[in-house]
Amino acid sequence: MNDTVVVTSRSFSSGERDLVDTLDRAGLRVVRCPADHDLRTLQPHLAHAVGWIAGTGPVMAEHLQAAPALKVLARYGVGVDAVDLDAAAAGGVVVTNTPGANSEAVAEHTIALLMAALRSVAAGDAMVRRGDWSVIRGRQLSGSVVGVVGFGRVGRGTARQCAALGCDVLVHDPYLPEREIAEDGHTPVPLQRLRTACDVVALHAPGGAVLIDAAWLEDCRPSQLVVNTARADLVDEGAVAMALREGRLFGYAADSLQTEADQDGTSPLLAPDLRAQVTVTPHLGGQTTQAIDRMGEAAVADVLAVLSGRPAHHPVDLPVTARGKES
């Protein structure tokens, strides 16, 4: 067999497992291509591809039309917003993802950001490097009330770890029965209550709607820390910057910013005067060796399953209308 698997994920097989070798031993030829999915670059490789392990770049109808032999598109990660699922269904392409592979890693990173912000880790490090050994008084996490918005895999992991560290955990998730949250040992609450009741609020909701806005910041505790390892668009960054300056919010920590695509540091949260109150990392949440291995293993397992005529382990539901067109 000399079938091609195109790989456009930057971190694929960069952990401890040699997953390229796994595909090689299965008789598949691995071709690495740019993560931006430039069609002109991909086209000659997609022409012979039976599998595609894709990162976050867009997968449009034009990409799929350029891959007439493609049987499986394995999204290396969870989100499939950038994939044209209608086109995939119409072309008979199985789409998969890797749910849960990096959930614990992101939950741990949430705790890392939370701790770093409460104890001024980044600011303290910068001070020492300047020769300044002044004391910054921080806050302890134990005994705090932590609000978790979104109780999926990552939200559950964050809630579990906060509870283990001695926090009272309140959870808001409008899509889950309150009974399910209570069975995990946490208190289900309306979103409004998190504004005034919580010392820390951890965001794990899907994007698309601003949660931390001017109204939230008018009501919340001045001692509140907001941690966002979900989507940048959950937060009004300008309103948060103003609240930090006015002493209406203790701090903000995040793994992404709305302006990151510009690469020019234009976010109001990156202003020099907010350096001690804002902690930001460049999408490090899922970047652990173990998570990279798990995502890669899941993607490879589904590619091999589909190419062998077996059902995928983590198929993505395709649009009914598209499936109808195919039939």
Précis, in short:
By secondary structure, the chain is an alpha/beta fold.
Overview of this structure, please?
The chain contains 13 helices and twelve strands. Helices cover 36% and strands 15% of the residues. The chain folds into two domains: 3-101 and 289-326, 3-Layer(aba) Sandwich (Rossmann fold); 103-280, NAD(P)-binding Rossmann-like Domain (Rossmann fold, 3-Layer(aba) Sandwich). Mean pLDDT is 93; it is low at 322-327. The protein is of the alpha/beta class. It has helices at 19-25, 39-46, 61-65, 85-90, 103-118, 121-129, 153-164, 178-183, 191-197, 214-219, 237-245, 289-307, 320-326; strands spanning 3-7, 28-32, 49-54, 72-75, 94-96, 145-149, 168-172, 187-188, 200-203, 225-228, 251-254, 278-280. Helix 7 (153-164) links the parallel strand 6 (145-149) and strand 7 (168-172). The strands form two sheets. Strands 8-7-6-9-10-11-12 form a seven-stranded parallel beta sheet, with helices on both faces. It has a five-stranded parallel beta sheet with strand order 2-1-3-4-5.
Order of helices and strands: EHEHEHEHEHHEHEHEHEHEHEEHH
User: What gross morphology would you assign?
Assistant: elongated
The biggest sheet, with number of strands, parallel, antiparallel or mixed sense and barrel status, is: 7 strands, parallel
- The number of helical runs is 13
The CATH superfamily of the largest domain bears the name: NAD(P)-binding Rossmann-like Domain
Total of domains: 2
**Do you know the CATH topology of the largest domain?**
Rossmann fold
Percent helix, as a range, is 25-40%
What's the CATH architecture name of the largest domain? 3-Layer(aba) Sandwich
Poorly predicted runs of 5 or more residues: 322-327
CATH classification class of the largest domain: Alpha Beta
Count the beta strands: 12
Rg from C-alpha positions?
Answer: 22 Å
> What integer is the average pLDDT?
93
Q: Give the strand order, joined by hyphens, for the main sheet.
A: 8-7-6-9-10-11-12
Strand content: 15-25%
- Rounded to the nearest angstrom, the distance between the terminal CA atoms is 30 Å
